[in-house]
Predict the 3D structure of the following.
Amino acid sequence: MKKIFPLNKVNSLLQSGPVILVSTFYKGRNNFMPVSWHTMLDFDPPLIGVVIGSDSFTHKALLETKEAVINIPTVKIAKQSLFAGKVSGYKTDKFLKTGLTSVEASQVKAPLIDECYACIECKVHDSKMSKKYDFFVLKAVKAHCDLSVREPKTIHHVTGNIFIKAGKRISL
Ligand SMILES: Cc1cc2nc3c(=O)[nH]c(=O)nc-3n(C[C@H](O)[C@H](O)[C@H](O)COP(=O)(O)O)c2cc1C
């Protein structure tokens, strides 16, 4: 039997996409932050909406540089990914602290994160809703993926410190 569910926890029912690491290059520094609030908006060109809080270094970087990379981590680097959500690029060099490897991208100055199984180079397509909703629309301009990773164990945020690790793929 279903019970009344708190409205301020509704997000935990809807979370499903993988946690992504949005990397940027701003003020001469590489940085990244985990983001679980994102959504596909279109196929071609691929448009991806991301909610990036206005206090974050990443928000400022997106507004100023209009570029980012969406990196998709797996459970192997879950600890480093979460750490990056607890500190800010304003104060911390997250690449140095986590030991993750930045690799040059080809279409944007923001770095690829080598340990992620897929990386999508993006340009900011629309930031009109960034002031009201912290919402940015990114356009994918180049994508890289390790196809040998057959069933990527991506991590999916539920709430607090609860995550779901992606499981077996099924065809229906
Ligand atoms: C699993 C996880 C998911 C997160 N998802 C989001 C999100 O969708 N949007 C957001 O603004 N912040 C999110 N955060 C918080 C940011 O990652 C955090 O504020 C980060 O320190 C900002 O880094 P920056 O200042 O270096 O940009 C998340 C944190 C964690 C741990």
